[in-house]
Amino acid sequence: MEYDEPLFFKVMQYAANADRDVVDMVSGNPDWEPPEALREGLHDYADADSDQFQYPPSEGLRDLREEIAERRNVDVEQVIVTNGAGEANYLAMARALERDAGDEVILTDPVYPYYPGKTTMLGGEMRFVSTELDGSLDPAKVRDVASDDTGCIVVNTPNNPTGAVYDRETMEELVAIAEEYDALLVADEVYDHFDFSGRFESALTIDSEHRIVTTAYSKSMAITGYRVGYAVFPESLVKAAKTRHMLVNVATSRPAQQAVLDALQNTDAEYYEETRAMLRARIDAFTDALDEAGAEYSRPDGAFYVMARFEDFPGTLDNVYTLIDEAGVAGMPGEAFGESREEWFRFALVTPRADEAAARLADYF
Length: 365
Prior knowledge:
Elements: H1 7-16, E1 23-24, H2 36-45, H3 62-72, E2 79-82, H4 84-97, E3 104-109, H5 114-121, E4 125-130, H6 139-145, E5 150-156, H7 168-180, E6 184-188, E7 211-216, E8 229-232, H8 235-249, H9 254-266, H10 269-292, E9 296-298, E10 305-309, H11 317-326, E11 329-330, E12 332-333, E13 345-348, H12 354-364
Helix pairs in contact: 2-9, 4-5, 4-8, 6-7, 10-12
GO biological process, one term: amino acid metabolic process
Family: Belongs to the class-I pyridoxal-phosphate-dependent aminotransferase family.
GO molecular function, one term: transaminase activity
């Protein structure tokens, strides 16, 4: 089976090789500092006894899983610590498709490209549901395409790339559809700390054997390289997911898990509040510049991405390269996220130069 190289890598490589200064707004790599307690925990770990450098429990350090379980109000045995949200989503989608309950995966359009990639890798068939222009999802559209062949429904809230936040009513309806068709709802909540609307509702607040929640500390703690995430499975699905996790990865990095645990236990809410305030300011400045450029755009209610459309300048890969060469700004082509946003670009506001990038775009257009 052939797999396409993700466009992210092509764009980042092109920008890195450009003959001019380029503001990188391609990938969601946070540019702010992680919690201080995380650094301290990692330093302390370096002096631990050598037995602490050996394999951890495959499903994750017990103390970390207990901390997660208490915070999420679930049983500790439902929690599997994974190599980021990427592996958590893989385990969840694999579990959904190996149940012989259907091989179709319902995805939104626009969609984070790794979900279709995983669907292909797992042998599933994709069905797409278009979101509204503001990124909101009408569950009735999901119900229209759901069938007895539906094995999995994947949603991301707060959403990448639209910045939409799904409210409780939406999540309840999605769980109900999954239950009706014996499918699994996989709710990727990796941006849960970046809700600017107050409407975010975790699927974990809805009791069901038909939903799996995935997330990671990559974004909330600005540690995409640590690769510490987790999935919360219904009890009936945990055993098989743990086995697959062990066979694929053996375990997740022990020092990284311990550092995350230290950060969870010793970081107050102010850290996250300051990050949200900083991102709100970036969103304001960036969208103001898009107004100057005459662009149409979606203002995110969550996460840290802005999608924009410029007149007579569709969001193709070639035009992304043009913006790199002529404006000095690197974003992602809308075509990477599905058919419904082919005219758009996505910009990640995870650079202290977001204001500069916005001014460059305003000047260019």
